[in-house]
Every structure is written in C-alpha cells, then in structure tokens.
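Before we proceed, please read the two lines closing this message. Let me know whether the structure tokens fit the sequence:

…
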Amino acid sequence: MRARGESERPGPGERYNPGEPVRPRQAATVILLRGGAKKLELLLVKRTPEARFMGGVWVFPGGAVDGHEGDGDRAHRAAAVRELCEEAAIDVGDPAELVKFSRWITPAEVQIRFDTHFFLALLPQGQEPRIDGEECVDLGWFTPSGALEAYRGGSIELVFPTIKHLEQLGEFSSVDELISHAREREVLPVQPRVVLEGEVARILLPGEPGY
C-alpha cells in the first residue's frame, strides 16, 4: 500500500487484513551511514526477487529479533547488529553504540506486521559492505534524495516506511548533523493506518486528516 500520491497498488508484503489484527513481530533495522561532516549517504540492499516477503525491494538491512536475543532494547540492538552483519557483512561492534532513530509499527490492517526499531550506525573504518547473493542480491550507497529519485524513476522499488524515512533523512546535510539530532530525539512509536476508499487503499500517518 502506498502513500497518497504514490502508486495505488499494494506494495510487496502489504496485503490487506480485514479480520482481527495480527500481533506484530519484533524487528530491528540499521541505517548505515557514511559522509562525516561533509555529506550524508546511506546503504540500501536489494532483497532477492525470490523472497516471499518484499521480494525485489530495496531496504535498510534488518530483520526479526531471534528468540535467544531476549526482550526490550538490548534485544533490538543485538538483532540490528546481527542482521547488518548477515546482510551486508558489516560489523559495527558494540550494539550500545547504535543511535536509536525511530520505531515503526505496521498498520493493524496489514497481514504481515512488524514492530521495527530503526538505528543509525556509522560505516566502520576499513570495512565495505558485501551482499551474500542469496537473501540480498545487490546494494548501493545513496543520498536520501538520490534514492527517492531512483524510486520515482522506476530503477529501484521501495515500500512506504523506507520512503518516509528517506524523506526525513533528506532534511540533514551531513551524517554529523543527523547523528547530533538523533541523540537528542525522543523516539515515539509511529503506527500508520490503512483507509480503504473503494478499491484504493491509502496509508495515513498520525496527525494527518482522516487518521
């Protein structure tokens, strides 16, 4: 499902659920950054088109929390570090060094739901991302505006939460500026809502008319 003004067709993994809401699974995502005080670039990886969920979509590295990782913030941080290593071969070290940026909960009207905690991390010196060719089949460094332009031009596919994060990240001119802002940011959960208008599904954010 797309935001108003985007494509009206459902996005990958965003099928409508008319029944009782599914309990969201805990998940974590890393927005890997490079650029220091001069610019802001971020890493996106392309999920294999063969995946049953969000196949072919470009995403920030991330995934579900494993049972052995426990509960709460520590579990989300551990999952974020593990997923970044698995999907992009980047080891950021201490999970406590991650900077929490946001928390998004999949709308109650969607079949597959996640309660995802987004973290910022700096590309460690001397490391370069690599994909495994199985779960992820491509990667790229993008400016936020560059990723959105590639999406609008049809060269990459994105889903609603990634689009909205890129829009937010585009407000910052450098990694240093973003990190400084994020350290002072109060992270509150965001749960969009799906509204059906005939055959068209729109996604609304808290505070928007009709939410």
User: Anything to note?
Assistant: Strands lie at 25-34, 41-47, 58-59, 62-64, 99-105, 114-122, 136-142, 189-190, 193-197, 200-204. The mean pLDDT is 89. The helical segments are 72-88, 144-152, 160-169, 175-183. The domain at 25-190 is CATH 3.90.79.10 (Nucleoside Triphosphate Pyrophosphohydrolase).
